[in-house]
Structure formats: C-alpha cells, structure tokens
Write a structure and sequence with these properties.
mainly beta; three-stranded parallel β-sheet; 1 helix; 3% helix
C-alpha cells in the first residue's frame, strides 16, 4: 500500500486487520466497515475525511487517530467502555448502536452526534445544550 492516498480508500471488503498496513496519509475517507475488531491496527497520522468502522462489535484494542476530518461511524458498538475518541471529529459522530452510556467520554471537538432515543436527558455532555440543533436522536 502506498504511504499517501489523496482521495478516499475503500477497504470495506476486509474482515481482518491481519497484515494490513494503512497509509500514513488519507486525504478523504477510509472505509473499513467490514471489520468487527480493529485490535492492533494503526490508523493514518492524517485522516482528512470520514472514517467508517460501522462493523466493529468491540472497542478492545482500538486506537483511533487524533483527528478525523469528517464523519466517524461507530454505530456497530454497543458500549463505549475503553474507547478513546479522537480529539477532533469534523462531521457526524455516529454512536447509534450504544445500549449504555457507561464509559462514554466524548471528544473535546465534534460537530454532529447521533445517539439512541432518550439519551439527551441521560448523557451529561457540557456542549450538548448549546449544540442541540446538531444532535440527531434516533
């Protein structure tokens, strides 16, 4: 794999991270929706666009990049325990699959959030009141 991909990288058919070495730079989106675990995977240093990890069923061993320029799709996860979010997410942070708010610590910078119905009252998020029009409750 090249060290730099300026566009988007579609690896949606992958089901394992075994032997996968991602580029250091991905200018647009990175599609890894076929993975159920990302343990041991090193993400690019630069993520200019979205990161699709909707197939993940566990956050064990997941080390997300510090910045994701677009959407971050983690809707396959049912718990956020042990999950460390990027410092910055430039688009939607999709957590629709969560069944509990236990362990949920949101990134310091995010633009949009998708959470299960009723969470607005249960999850304590300092910025949610001022950004409530950006929150999609599903």
């Amino acid at each position: 794999m090249p060290e730099r991909v300026d566009g988007w990288l579609d690896l949606s058919g992958l089901t394992t991270v075994e032997g996968l070495k991602l580029p250091k730079h991905v200018g647009a989106g990175l599609d890894l929706r076929g993975l159920t675990t990302a343990e041991g995977l090193e993400f690019p240093e630069h993520m200019g666009g979205w990161l699709d990890l909707e197939g993940l069923t566990t956050s064990r061993g997941l080390k997300l990049p510090k910045r994701v320029g677009g959407d971050l799709d983690l809707k396959g996860l049912t718990t956020a325990e042990g999950l460390e979010f990027p410092e910055y997410v430039g688009g939607w942070l999709d957590l629709r699959g969560l069944t509990t708010s236990r362990g949920l610590k949101l990134p310091s910078m995010w633009r949009h959030l998708s959470v299960p119905l009723g969470w607005i009252q249960r999850v304590s998020m300092g910025r949610i009141n001022s950004l409530s029009h950006f929150v999609r409750v599903l």
